[in-house]
Amino acid sequence: GQNIDQPTEMTATEGAIVQINCTYQTSGFNGLFWYQQHAGEAPTFLSYNVLDGLEEKGRFSSFLSRSKGYSYLLLKELQMKDSASYLCAVTHSGGYQKVTFGTGTKLQVIP
Amino acid sequence: DTEVTQTPKHLVMGMTNKKSLKCEQHMGHRAMYWYKQKAKKPPELMFVYSYEKLSINESVPSRFSPECPNSSLLNLHLHALQPEDSALYLCASSLQDGSYEQYFGPGTRLTVT
C-alpha cells in the first residue's frame, strides 16, 4: 500500500518561514505534488517535483529527495492568507494515473 | 477558462433515492477524476477517466457509478447510499495523466439521511 505522512498541525508567525515535511513509502513512485486547501474550498496546485532538488516559485519552494522518500514545502514571508491545509500527493504505480494524498498539514499563521 | 464546475453544490438524499453529480471542464483536459473527502481528511481517489475510458476504480462500491459521456463531462450516479457516504465529492481534471497538475471543482457537499 501507500503510506504518506505529514505533521497534522503547525503554527507559525506572520512574516516568518515555515517548512512542512512529507515522507512517503509508495510503490512505483513517479512524482510529488503540493496542494493548498483553504477550509471549505477545493485544493489548488502549488508545485510538482519529479527530480531531486529544490524548485522555487515566488514565496513557495518545494524540495524532493527520491532516495529518502522525503519532500518539504517551504513558505517564506508568511501572510495571514497562508492559513490553510497543505497536502502532499504522490503519483505512483508506474502509470502516472494514481494519485494518493497525504494526511495534510493544517497551518495556522498568527500575527 | 481554467475552471471546473460541479453541480449541485449541495445535495441531501435519502438512502433509497437515485441522484447524479455532474462535473464539467472546457480546458481540453483528457483525464478526469472523482474524489471523496471527509471532514479534516485528505481527498481519496475514487475513479479516473482517461480519454473518456474508465482507467482506475479504487474498489469503490457499486452504489457509485461513474460515467463520462464526452471529453468535457463527468457524472457520478448515486443509488442506495449509506449515511457514511456523506462527504464532499470533488471532481478534478488534468491535461493527460496524473503527472500534470489537477484542477479541482468546488465540490458537491452530499448528505445521506
Shape of chain A: globular
Q: Please state roughly what percent of the residues of chain A sit in beta strands, choosing from under 5%, 5-15%, 15-25%, 25-35%, 35-45% or over 45%.
A: over 45%
Secondary-structure element order of chain A, N to C: EEEEEEEEEEE
DSSP summary, beta strand count of chain B = 11
Largest sheet of chain A: 6 strands, mixed
Order of helices and strands of chain B: EEEEEEEEEEE
Largest sheet of chain B: 7 strands, mixed
Subunit arrangement of the protein: heterodimer
**Uncertain segments of chain B of ≥5 residues (pLDDT<50)?**
none
What distance separates the N and C termini of chain B? Answer: 36 Å
Straight-line distance between termini of chain A: 40 Å
- Rough shape of chain B? globular
Outline the structure in words:
The complex is a heterodimer of chains A (111) and B (113). Helices cover 0% and strands 59% of the residues of chain A. By secondary structure, chain A is mainly β. In chain A, the strands form two sheets. In chain A, strands 2, 4, 5, 9, 10 and 11 form a six-stranded mixed beta sheet that branches. In chain A, a hairpin with a 6-residue loop joins strand 4 and strand 5. Chain B contains no helices and eleven strands. In chain B, a hairpin with a 6-residue loop joins strand 4 and strand 5. Chain B is globular and about 35 Å long. The model of chain B has no long low-confidence stretch (mean pLDDT 94). Classes of the chains: A mainly beta (111), B mainly beta (113). At the A-B interface, strand 5, strand 9 and strand 10 of A face strand 5 and strand 10 of B.
